[in-house]
Amino acid sequence: MSEDYRKMWEELGLDLEAHDQLLAVIPQMYGDIYMSQQNRPEGMAYLDFVMSEIHGLRVKELNDLREAGGKVVGAFCLYVPEEVVLAGGAACVGICGGADWGTAEAEKVLPRNLCPLIKSFIGFKLTKVCPYFESSDMIVGETTCDGKKKSYEVLGEYTNVHVMHTPQTKDDASRKLWLEEVKKFKATMEELTGNTIDAAALAQGVATVNAKRAALKRMNEARKASPVPISGKDALLIEQVAFYDDPVRFTQMINKVSDELEQRIADGVGVAPADAPRILISGCPMAIPNWKMHHIVESTGAIIVGEEACIGHRYFRDMVDESPSDLEGELTAVADRYMKLDCACFTPNKERLDNIMQLVEDYKVDGVIHYALQFCDPFTVEYNSVERTLKYAGVPVLKIETDYSMEDAGQLSTRVEAFMEQIKETQGAIV
Ligand code: BJ8
After folding, report:
1. Which fold has domain 5-211?
2. CA 187 to chain centre
3. Does residue 294 or residue 22 have the better pLDDT?
4. pTM surpassing 0.90?
5. Does the Cβ of 117 fall within 6 Å of ligand 1?
């Protein structure tokens, strides 16, 4: 860290000793996984800087906002409408849930056989090592999977939680229910911030988030090229940082990265040979600092060209319609955009299968790795239909179920290497 932030962390109530231990682990891991890559785009220096200041500069910015009377809202799910948070003059941050830190503490209040993402965020709260958690004036939960739904009751014993009731299906009754939830959330934001959210404020919130999603979309477009100008690891990092960086600055910086990627495409520059297997990762979100699968896959010489996940395409695929000019129309447009999400918590969820096939076609994918976190019922159950769809189309698919520990890394590498062999054989048969 370029400044001494200890006073700020202490004032936030962090457990400084435990926090020091956490901060000692991340740079080592980041160095091994990220800085060892060759021929990275120069624009990734911004992301390296963000990571070097992960608990420093951005937390300070949030702190400054709070000292000036602003509010910070933390979230764990794509259903939380960031547009409404920004319209209230607050900052929206995605809280980390990508490391098995504090799992032992979490297991004192949660069952052991629960998804690691949920145990991670409860563990971060209980061990007081996440400055984003401690900077949040309100956490927004949602009734997606059962594990999350019930865990927000537990989290509510420790902090201020607002829960949004997310629909499970996409009929008209669910759309109405969801629009009401968005309106209720707007009222909660107004109460939290003391600001009225009018049509102009919401239009600004929508424009800011749409611009961020457009920048991510543009960066991902570059991954269609052959050779691919950016590694999957770097693209994943950009998608992860999107959840907590300042949205306007992030948009500018990622558009600069895209300028460079487009130049690389024009010059035929890539980070892997043109014949490297092109892999799509599909499934559960990979929250920072979960880089495990990307590292394992790209260490075999393959290149990841997309993430069919919430930290990935599901986040930036759909925009909010900016044409309505009255508040009711804008709120409806926001609600409609979120109803397009194809999370495995929906039933039925045929859209996800269609979207996976579209990505396979658009990104010329050679094989799909379906990534599910252990004990995640929605994604592990939905795997069957994903597999059937892909196999029917002749696309090789590998099912991975794992957690955040590195204990199975060796075994996963072996399985991924065998999968790459299978892909090469399939390609050989086609040629
Ligand atoms: S919109 S994918 S972010 S719910 S991995 S906690 S589903 S048991 S993360 Fe998700 Fe929102 Fe859906 Fe996206 Fe439960 Fe599964 Fe754990 Fe999960």
Report:
1. Rossmann fold (3.40.50)
2. 26
3. 294
4. yes
5. yes
